Amino acid sequence: MTERLDTVVIGAGQAGLAAGAYLARYGREFVIFDAHARIGESWRRRWDSLLLFTPAAISGLPGLPFPAPPRAFPGKEQMADYLQTYAETFNLPVRLDTCVRELTRRDGRFLLDLEDGSLEADSVIVATGALRAPRRPAFADELDSAIQQFTVADYRNSTQVAPGPVLVVGAGNSGVEIATELAATHLVWLAGRHPGHFPFNPTGPVFWRLAHHLLTVDSPAGRWLHAATNDKGTPVIRSSPRKLAKAGIERLPRVEGHSHGLPLLADGRTLRPAAIVWATGFGPEYDWINLPAFDQSGTPRHTRGVSVIPGLYFVGLPFQYSFTSELGCGVGRDAEYVVRHITGHVGSEVTV
After folding, report:
1. Which of 10, 159, 278, 343 is 20 to 30 Å apart from 150, CA to CA?
2. What's this model's pTM, rounded to 2 decimal places?
């Protein structure tokens, strides 16, 4: 017999847990599925020295402040532990080790194909994260096999990396952090366009309050920033060109291809690195959703997380509503909006 539920949340990261907290508050019958064996596992699998790019003051989810000094940048293990605590605090019905292989729609209800059966739901919140598949250029497979290659998802620490020069491709936050770590033990080249950097330390509450309330898709400034970050990437948080130079990191133009098995720069030079770290971002991974819910680039078509497909919702998308949509403070607001839409409480607010 097929199990039937009001709502299914797919993904037990910060977006899915925030949505679950609001669903529970509104008395909705729901379950949260996650493919991992424990909550927070996606954080634990990232590189060892990773710190959040936002301070603890704005990294907590609704109803439970992050347990760290407000201006501190928590580590990945702290974040993973916090998510576990959040699920336990609100007694959220999380089913781990549960992979949704396909999501379809039939007779007005959603059908979820699981590894051990199927389930039907009136509504589905996709909270798996929009950027899950690490990107690297197609020509990476044509490079000399003697060159080690890592994506941001593969890299853990400098001990993995062979002696010799390391080329980090991508100068956003992840690329800059990894390049700085590697510079302590390797000669490092950092290739890619500089996306800009914050000229101040963004740990204070005033900046984030302004970003949360003013930089939204409803404001001209927010729409401009959304377009700018889509084009250039998010400004670097904890570094600057001066700090990179002080660490001994050499900045290079973009990598545009290969020549005789070596990476080719935009200025025509080739490099012979011992290893390459591709910090070239992540792409969407929605091939398991068999619904016409996406544009040609694979991006969900939505308004504040409400999909063009009735009953389908998204939480945790970059700039879903504001610059803070991927942060604890922003994802909570987005989750509440989506849940109020599901439960017919649009226009009202509830406190978790």
Report:
1. 10
2. 0.91
